[in-house]
Amino acid sequence: MFTTVIGGIASQGLAKKIAKRLKAKYLNSEIKVFPDGECKITIYGKPRGRIIVVQSTYPPVDSNLIQALALISKAREYSSKIIAVIPYFGYARQDREFLPSEIVTMKMVAKLFKAVEASKIVIVDVHSKIALKHFKIPVENISAVSELARYFRKLQLKNPLVVSPDFGGISRSREFAKLLNTDYTALVKWRDRKTGNVEIKSSNLRNASGRDVIIVDDMISTGGSIIKAAEFLKRQNCGRIFVACTHALLINNAEKKIRQSGVSKIISTNTIPSKTAVVDSSEIIVKAIS
Ligand code: R5P
């Protein structure tokens, strides 16, 4: 099937890799931001066949989201088969009403993808499965755990302990540990819904002492969760601390703060371009598309 891949401004490197793997035609997009903040988007060239639009919606989230929707809407003029690859899906953390009267923004965002007539959405490690329920079009959520674990296997750490910073991530750490043939645990995290501050409330971990640990999470935003987990693990006399995550947003100097908390290495995937994004997610994305 003839395929065109359109790279949104937030994901051009990844989009090119996807196009190469698919042996598809690649088209770049460009934006011009006007003084009032509106942007004009241009797609260079004519797409044809099945069209794949690739655009993560990391910060600036709203702007990258509008661009993704605009690209899909334009692509729909050329084809009835549009796959929207949104590797990091912003707003997935607002999937339910945590405090009374909050707007479930994820629900509205999901409606927008239907409105622009995307045929299918592909997401990598969506923050919550509940977020997926808001879509009224087919959606596939793929996991980058195997790719991250492959990277860590090469480091040949001796008997590492895989740790999820919260109970919500326990199945991710279980899967990661299985791929490394080692054991795992999850800490108990509490987040103040008003301030966003995080506390680790776990009791002592007997099996962390002297061992290298790999903290595995879906995303790092401010780094608060990882920093608290690292501080807790250090108090348990663990060895070196590594971090593996799919999406490294690393807001407000988070990388530096995480390193200062005692983390030796942060490894993430290229769903969000950054210094830590050394694991390629294009292969798993192509599998989901094909
Ligand atoms: C929370 O449930 C997520 O898995 C991440 O741990 C969290 O969103 C990361 O945010 P931050 O880096 O700001 O603590």
Could you characterize what this model shows?
The protein is α/β, with parallel strands linked by helices. The chain is 31% helix and 27% strand. The protein has 2 domains: 150 residues, 3-Layer(aba) Sandwich (Rossmann fold), CATH 3.40.50.2020; 126 residues, 3-Layer(aba) Sandwich (Rossmann fold). Strand 4, helix 2 and strand 5 form a beta-alpha-beta unit. The chain is globular, with a radius of gyration of 20 Å. The relative contact order is 0.13. The mean pLDDT is 96. It binds ribose-5-phosphate. The site of ribose-5-phosphate has 14 residues, from strand 12 and helix 7. The site of ribose-5-phosphate (R5P) has 14 residues, from strand 12 and helix 7.
Summarize this structure as a short list of keywords or feature phrases:
Rossmann fold; 2 domains; seven-stranded mixed β-sheet; 15 strands; 27% strand; binds ribose-5-phosphate
Summarize the structure.
Helices cover 31% and strands 27% of the residues. With 290 residues, the protein is α/β, with parallel strands linked by helices. Helix 1 crosses helix 9 and helix 5 packs across helix 6.
What fold name goes in the CATH topology slot of the largest domain? Answer: Rossmann fold
N-to-C series of helices and strands: EHEEEHEHEHEHEHEEEEHEHEEH
Kindly provide the name of the CATH class of the largest domain.
Alpha Beta
What does the average pLDDT come to?
96
Residue windows where pLDDT falls under 50 for at least 5 positions: none
* Helix percentage: 25-40%
Backbone CA Rg? 20 Å
Q: What structural class do helix, strand and pairing data support?
A: alpha/beta
Q: Total helix count? A: 9
Bound molecules: ribose-5-phosphate
Sheet with most strands: strand arrangement:
3-2-1-4-5-6-7
Which percent range describes the beta-strand content?
25-35%
| Oligomerization | single chain
Tally of discrete structural domains: 2
> Which architecture of the largest domain would the CATH scheme give at its second level?
3-Layer(aba) Sandwich
Q: What global shape is seen?
A: globular
